[in-house]
Amino acid sequence: MQEKGTISIHTENIFPIIKKFLYSDNEIFLRELVSNAVDATQKIKRLATLGQYNGELGDITVEVAFDKDKKTITISDRGLGMTAEEIKKYINQIAFSGAAEFVEKFKDAKDANEIIGKFGLGFYSAFMVADKVEINTLSYQEGAAPARWTCDGSTEFEISAGDRKDRGTEITLFINADSEEFLDKWKLQGILDKYCKFLPVPIKFGTKTDSVEDGEEADGKKKWKSVEKDNIINTTSPIWTKSPNDLKDEDYLKFYKELYPMGEDPLFWIHLNVDYPFNLTGVLYFPKVKNDFEMQKNKIKLFSRQVFITDEVKDIVPEFLMLLHGVIDSPDIPLNVSRSFLQADSNVKKINSYITKKVADKLGELYKKDRKVYEEKWNDIGLFVKYGMISEDKFAEKGKDFALLKNTKGEYFTLPEYKEKVKAIQTDKNDQTVYLYATDVNKQDGFIQSANKKDYDVLVMDSPIDSHFIQHLEMKEEKTQLKRVDADVAEKLIEKEDSYANLLTEDQSKKVKEIFEKAISNATYSVDVAGLSPEEMPVTVTMDEFMRRMKDMAQMGGGMSFYGSLPDNYKVAINGNHPVIDKLLKTEDEEAQTKLAKQAFDLALLSQGMLTGKDLTAFVKRSVELI
């Protein structure tokens, strides 16, 4: 049997395209060929189960080997195999029409997956690295003859009699000069670990040395010896393919370590398993994430039938869950998935919605099951929940039941609970309930204490996303306003009808303002004299809530960069009812007045951590003189 012919693609430009435009992703040739071998193996197993193949299955391991001297890589399986006719059908007739149009459309393509996936060119990815490819195969069908197919990268092929004695297929790649990097054990091992680590059929790649027990020494100690054994690179039944009922916590933790050997143990996990309206399995882990966005190395891995595709899952997983770790496997997502496919496919959109719902349900379940444990984990999971509520309306609706607010006393409240807690005391004269918050509890301690004296509660909002979450709360919570605790003096944070009156006359207030403006001598600070509690500080320095918030958001991004470039402006509130101000007015010496005003102002800056350098040195020196 011998036959020569031309591959039916109607153009000689296909191979240059494969070689040139897929070059940046050339390692996927091994994924494609091993996946094909696994598919052929699973099909023969299926036929045996259905009684349509009665022969012995025998060893069904897929083997990958290389020969550095001969410059070959070989992938062999004991799957279905092919007849000469099937080779013509599946190998020679590339499944697309209008090749000229194809060449024109994809001559500038950058995405290898887009080309391979769209036109079924998986096998032909071999020509990215090989000058010649040879197939030696024997079909499982009774009476079939072995067949050999060879092609040198042109559109010419040759089919002849093969010499294979057992069922299956062996593909040999004669590696080209530009791709000899693949004739390396560790390079190939790395690619197999990346793409084939969880394939459902054993994949052998050479051998490895293991230590096994070999009896006992005279003193009773175990003897060990080294043995060579097959290097099976994959786990054929990873936990996401199993029922959650058959798994223990240690199984999930062990798998997490397998995925992320250097990672800290996760907080908890979600086992995904759905077969309608799409197929999806997987395990998502909640890692410990503190107050910095670790858009990290440990990404969610996307699989299709246990073949690794990518860890760029932005269109499949909601953006707010990109901080999660783990795996997602869906046969509804093709192996050669392109970015444009992910963005357009309806199944992908359904998967996205399903994952959002599952995460919300899991968080709600954890909260209801053991609120105390949930509160202990809040510092780690709060970032996920807040980000989700900001970015996904459906998640926000569910999140109202398990999102927590924490105050400076370490107490936790759901959103409805907190509203109820502060409504009576923290509602202003305009019927707005005001939530006070601190971003740095230590730095803002003086302001927190002033608020606490008025029985006001203060929340802790110190995560990088809280500036956006505050905006979200104000939009969603009716008649609710949030103010940073140092945005103004406590008396003015929540304006009441019965606020303190300024005991100074208009002339006295004017004089005090002039003294402080002279002492401060800086246009960045605007001075105002107000009637406050005598127990409050004589001088308080604050930044307007709106301006401070815009600057915080500018640091986080979000289209507020204009505010970030504006100079800082502060309000200086002079407490007209404080004894220090009375002393200031009774001081007749102008220099002494300025000195006292400057001291009170610097004290206010010091309480905010805003007094530094020469100003701090001068304050200390002045303080010694005043003692």
Structure description:
The chain is of the alpha+beta class and 627 residues long. The N and C termini lie far apart (111 Å). The model is unreliable at 95-103, 109-120 and 291-295 (pLDDT under 50). Keywords: ATP-binding, Chaperone, Cytoplasm, Nucleotide-binding, Stress response.
Topology, please?
Elements: E1 2-6, H1 14-21, H2 28-49, E2 62-67, E3 72-77, H3 84-92, H4 99-106, H5 112-119, E4 130-138, E5 147-151, E6 156-161, E7 168-175, H6 185-196, E8 203-216, E9 222-232, H7 249-259, E10 268-274, E11 280-286, E12 300-304, E13 307-310, E14 325-329, H8 339-344, H9 346-369, H10 371-391, H11 393-399, E15 404-406, E16 412-414, H12 415-422, E17 433-438, H13 445-453, E18 458-460, H14 466-476, E19 480-484, H15 490-493, H16 506-520, E20 525-530, E21 539-542, H17 545-556, H18 561-564, E22 570-575, H19 579-586, H20 590-607, H21 613-626
Parallel strand pairs: 2-8, 12-14, 17-18, 17-19, 20-22
Antiparallel strand pairs: 1-6, 2-3, 3-7, 4-5, 4-7, 5-6, 8-9, 10-11, 11-14, 12-13, 15-16, 21-22
Helix pairs in contact: 2-6, 9-10, 9-11, 10-11, 10-14, 16-20, 20-21
